[in-house]
Write the structure tokens for this entry.
Amino acid sequence: MRWLHRCPSCGAAYAIEPGRYLCDACGAGNAAGHPLEGVLECVWEGDGGEARRIAEAGGVPLPVEGKYFPPLPVGGTPLWEPDRLREALDAPNLFLKDDTCEPSGSYKDRASWLVAAFARKHGIREIALASTGNAASSMSCVGAAAGLKITVFLPAAAPAAKRIQVLQYGAELREVQGTYDQAFDESLAYSAATGVLSRNTAYNPLTIEGKKTASFEIARQLAASFSAARGKTRGGRGQAAPSAAVAFRAPDHVFVPTGDGVIIAGVIKGFEDLAALGLVDRVPTFWAAQAEGSSAIARALETGRFEPRPSATIADSISVDVPRNGAFALAKLKKHGGRGVIVNDTEILSAQRTLSSTSGLFAEPSSACAFAGYLKAKPSIGREETVVVMLTGSGLKDIKSAALAVGARL
Ligand SMILES: *Cc1c(COP(=O)(O)O)cnc(C)c1O
């Protein structure tokens, strides 16, 4: 199966090869303090026959062959059917996609895994990146399994657990006395000077492509859940009928915690792929859930413009001054009628506790933001509609915020 990079703005095509990140024309005028322009998209060539076969066999079509993926279990995470939460909210078709149980404890592993596979395919020995914390701990984790040298640029204020993970996994830690945005620029300078592969989010197109994998899982898991439920009402054993091909089903709504806008763009891309292959009938309504103190994408959905502001929220993973993938994510959201929902830190901490105590799923503040966003948007969603809330990081990654939410001392 042949793949290439395509610029969604001008349509230019590029080989997927080391050193290729942005479109030469559209990415030439990038300036600090603005979302990246010229971010490339991974596309397959041809009619998608092979992509369809891969999806129907239970896999995900990706631009790196399976044999290069490092030996650790990434993806394939559970879709919860939280009965107590459903009852409390009178929301019978609410689902929770649980990526807190990824190897490093966050959704970032999906992107790190693909970037590591790409490095292995091309004989690359070192990867560098900037991070608010989770991308760093994730790349370090996957790098440890893959035998790659990982250099991370991390703001000194990152939560301790994420910093300690980096050190445990044996990566090289460069602490930046400044914001994530400064770390981003420093890591790009390092990659440019050394030629080391960059896993900077949005900048490396594979970070978006790697994050589409959950869409394929959700569509399969939903189909299985609904077919099992039908079995139950017919007096069956609640088991899905065995069928040759895997069935797919799109939810009505997906809530995604959003900072740089890579996860949401990736998950939308996954549903675009599924729709293009004729496996689902539509792309769901996507909700970019953002914290009041870091809401550039939700605001741009309203105004059409990005207005960078210094970020301030307890949800560190979605705290960005400039959403690096903002332009790409905004285009995807607009194309499919996506929405924004903004919640404050008090709502985030309250939602975190509700989620933990009513479902048993303990997620970090960024993910609680997605659930808080759902609670806020719920009045505009029909009772029977199918809703997936994406929970992207483990609550254990930021105990300081979680302690605040329950009024406990550390
Ligand atoms: C990075 C991250 C996000 C936000 O993803 P973006 O691509 O920056 O929008 C959400 N949740 C967790 C746990 C993360 O680590």
In short: The longest strand covers residues 149-155.
